[in-house]
Amino acid sequence: MAPPLLVAAVVGIGLGVFLQKGRFCFVNAFRDFFAYKDSRVTKGVIAATLLTMVFWGIAYQLGYYHGFWTPEWGLTGLVGGFVFGVGMTYAGGCASGTLYRAGEGYLQFWLTLLFMGVGYAAFTVAFPTLQSTYFTPLTFGEGVSLFSISPIPASLLALGVAMAALLIYATMAGRTAKNADPDEHATTGSVQLTTFLAPVVGLRQFAHGTAAYFRELVRTWRTPIAASKRPWDPRTAALGITAMAVVWFTQVSIVGITSPEARWTGYLLSQAGVDAGSFEYWGSVLFQGQGVGVTVDMVMIGFVIVGAALAALWSGDFSLRVPKSRRLPNAVVGGTLMGAGSRLAPGCNIGNIYSGIAELSVHSFIAAIGIIAGVYVMTHWIYRDVGCAI
Predict the structure, then answer these.
(1) pTM over 0.90
(2) DSSP 131
(3) 3-class secondary structure, 14
(4) What does the domain layout of the chain look like in residue ranges?
């Protein structure tokens, strides 16, 4: 096993580079899809999640892993996820997107991080009350990963779920293609046949699109230095993110963002003289009674910002950008909602949509619905004057 701090540095810097180069933000993935039917980043998110699921399933089956993160499941995921989805859409960046944009020099997202800390702290103060009034009544079952309870070998289960997700995607894509170019002479029978063949049409489109992507990837990287300085296709970033996630899973745990950030909040407050360990959520839950200190996942997310900054400097994207005054409420309100929502769920877009679905956590499937619903509602509110495509 490699030294933990070395793994944290390599994985953190790698994630920062791939997030920045692919402009890999979950707000963009869902908001742009709802608003404009732009699925460019959405495809990257889907690719990263399904690829990570398959490789984590293989690692789990072989015993090369260091534990899942599986919170108890219930309506807390739906409610907290919704709050987080609203917050990240209003802030203009998800948990991981906020980190890489902070690395690019956006002071607005440093402010977002600060107010996420406010949300973490507010939740921590309210945690004893929330335990009895929120978590207990809204929790229905113990946390579990389908990998650990399924009789199907983990690698085959992961591959089966990934293929099922791909088939659903292909079916939707095939129907969309038919609706975009309807045959005005089609009979009822032929329309039914076309509906039946929608998955075939979608899979064919997927195969052609994937082949075209790899051809373009090979062509682009014939000049590697120039290619490394240009923005990358989100699917290319997804390949790198998957590689880093597999390393982290085999050496430490699943990839998470907001739990380490909540620990950073407690640690920094303790350095300022606050007895953070006396608060139940920091002392007993996040730091597990081991004392308030710096953990390996805290180091890793710090290096995400470093990696994003290095990538931005290399590409010429780095610049200190002072936010306009009209954008300050986005950072303040959105950041606070993100911090509180990620604890109410618990988990953020990375912990639940990316890592949580990749580890087949029951809680995360519910939380992911809440997060996406929050993005959908907030997107429609933001674009209420002009409307959304979906």
Answers:
(1) yes
(2) I
(3) helix
(4) 4-181+188-382
